[in-house]
Design brief:
Elements lengths: L4 E4 L2 E4 L3 E13 L4 E7 L7 E6 L17 E10 L7 E12 L16 H6 L8 H23 L3 E2 L5 E2 L11 E2 L26 E3 L4 H11 L1 E9 L12 E10 L3 H22 L1 H10 L4 H10 L3 E4 H9 L17 H12 L3 E7 L15 E9 L3 E8 L4 H10 L8 H8 L5 E7 H9 L20
Parallel strand pairs: 5-7, 8-12, 14-15
Antiparallel strand pairs: 1-2, 3-4, 3-6, 4-5, 6-7, 9-11, 10-11, 12-13, 13-18, 15-16, 16-17, 17-18
Helix pairs in contact: 2-4, 2-5, 2-11, 4-6
Bound molecules: adenosine-5'-triphosphate (ATP) and magnesium ion (MG) (3 copies).
One magnesium ion binds next to β17.
Length: 465
């Protein structure tokens, strides 16, 4: 029969072979018989490996018995089947090399005990060492690969849109301004004014809130494109859903309408849910056990059910006629708050909703006006437990209609001349959406606070490094 192949930290080894593994100690347990059991992990995968160390080892009392959570080691020995419970294989150690002790185990902030997520947040530089942040990081990685794969398989081109920009795409006034440190030495015109044509450093520039307008230029040339990059919003908010710096996935599709964008959103979400369920089953089991017992079943349900499409007007009707009392009152024309979105998705439907056709007055200038003259072809995907995770729309492709909107909103046509050109020269219906990547990670893992699904959260009071 063939020798079994064992996967340790993403490398393959034959059972019975000599192996060396490098990692950190999670726990050490000693038996009365003078054997130590080391639980070693390297963060690259969920499963740790157990090393069994006998007292005969020369550095047993000097080193092995000093090992505590967080110490780094290189362990060599034979890979064998484990007679004990809890693991299939283990290493019979013949050598334990300590790379780094933990100087003061009693005060090591990431000791092996279970820490609260708030406590971990306060130790942002050490929290990657916990099971929780290992799992978050691997799921995040899987989701981002799945997103790229999804679009690649469908022939989309990934484009990078600028981070420094002059335009406020959403018109929400939530931009961080970018300025140069060297205002004195900017190129000047003969009249002594800063010459923006030679240098943008003196121009008012901002960190991008969305790559959409730029993405449209490529969709109106390459048909199907997407962006996946960082976006910035100066929202001085303390919600569990907003960061000042977050990642957004923004597909833009040409020869397409709102229904096409909605279908793309549904297909994409199902594709990435499937990927994480199969590729990160171990981490998802951890989340189901530790964070949210529905974590796996919720995704399984999503994959097999059709997302409900609903009109904004119908949603208002439902919200006005339900038993629930809301903090923010509802009437036709208001933007929905997360309490409303969550009620609709969690209690009314019990599944994600694609809510469509919002009042034009609460939406951005670029959205396509519907025939009723009151609503625009906008959509939000509302997920149970979170609320909005995607916002999208069909874009106004008609130049006259777009100009009318720009005028109505007091926006300067000059500033949008490049955007208007897309309508002047071979205009096509096109649509797209933005998925907040951290909201997706939060939804998938069940980790409630968005600050806990990104490595270095940027939000009020969190930017120390
Ligand atoms: P919200 O209503 O929750 O403030 P929004 O309508 O302002 O979101 P959009 O402009 O539609 O957001 O952006 C598209 C997506 O980006 C949103 O659906 C959401 O998933 C995500 N997003 C928006 N703002 C933030 C933020 N501050 N932090 C993290 N994700 C965000
Ligand atoms: Mg917002
Ligand atoms: Mg919104
Ligand atoms: Mg939105």
């Amino acid at each position: 029969s063939k020798t079994p192949i064992v996967d340790i930290f993403n490398s393959k080894f034959a059972l019975g072979s000599q192996v060396t593994v490098k990692g950190w100690i999670r726990t050490r347990r000693d038996s009365k018989a003078g054997i130590s059991f080391l639980n070693i992990y390297d963060g690259s995968c969920f499963d740790p490996i157990q090393a069994v160390v006998a007292a005969e080892l020369t550095n047993y009392t000097s080193d092995v018995l000093r090992l505590s959570a967080g110490c780094s080691v290189a362990v060599t020995g034979e890979l064998v089947e484990s007679p004990g419970k809890g693991q299939q294989f283990e290493i019979q150690a013949t050598k334990v090399e300590v790379l780094g002790f933990v100087e003061d185990p009693e005060t090591y902030p990431m000791s092996a005990k279970r820490h609260s997520i708030e406590y971990m947040r306060e130790h942002a530089h050490l929290r990657p060492r916990t099971n929780m942040f290992g799992a978050v990081t691997r799921v995040r990685n899987c989701l981002s690969h799945a997103i790229h794969n999804f679009f690649y398989e469908r022939g989309f081109n990934w484009i990078s849109t600028p981070i420094i920009t002059g335009s406020d795409c959403e018109g929400a006034g939530e931009m961080f301004q970018v300025s140069t440190l060297d205002l004195e030495n900017l190129p000047r015109t003969d009249a002594g004014k800063i010459d923006y044509k030679k240098d943008f450093f003196g121009k008012e520039t901002f960190l991008t809130v969305s790559g959409q307008l730029n993405a449209e230029t490529y969709a109106c040339a390459l048909t199907n494109v997407y962006t996946f990059g960082p976006t910035f919003r100066a929202e001085n908010s303390h919600t569990t859903r907003h960061l000042a710096e977050f990642w957004m996935v923004e597909p833009e599709i040409a020869f397409a309408d709102l229904a096409d964008a909605a279908q793309l959103a549904e297909d994409m979400l199902k594709y990435v849910f499937n990927a994480v369920l199969t590729e990160r089953a171990d981490d998802m089991a951890f989340f189901a056990q530790r964070v949210d017992k529905e974590a796996i079943t919720r995704l399984q349900k999503m994959v097999s059910s059709k997302f409900v499409r609903m009109d904004y007007t119908e949603a208002i009707d439902i919200l006005q006629n339900c038993d629930k009392t809301f903090e923010y009152p509802v009437e036709w024309g208001v933007d929905l708050q997360s309490e409303h979105e969550r009620y609709l998705a969690e209690e009314h439907v019990g599944a994600p909703i694609i809510l469509q056709n919002y009042p034009k007055d609460i939406k951005a200038f670029y959205m396509k006006l519907n025939g009723d003259g009151k609503t625009v072809a906008a959509m939000d995907v509302l997920a149970p437990g979170i609320g909005e995770i995607i916002g999208g729309s069909q874009r106004e492709e008609d130049l006259a209609a777009l100009d009318k909107r720009l005028d109505e909103m007091g926006l300067d046509k000059e500033d949008y001349s490049w955007y208007r050109d897309l309508r002047k020269y071979g205009t096509v219906p096109h649509a797209g959406f933005g998925l907040g990547f951290e909201r997706l990670v939060s939804y998938v893992t069940g980790v409630q606070n968005i600050r806990d699904v990104i490595a270095f959260p940027r939000a009020p009071g969190t930017a120390e490094f």
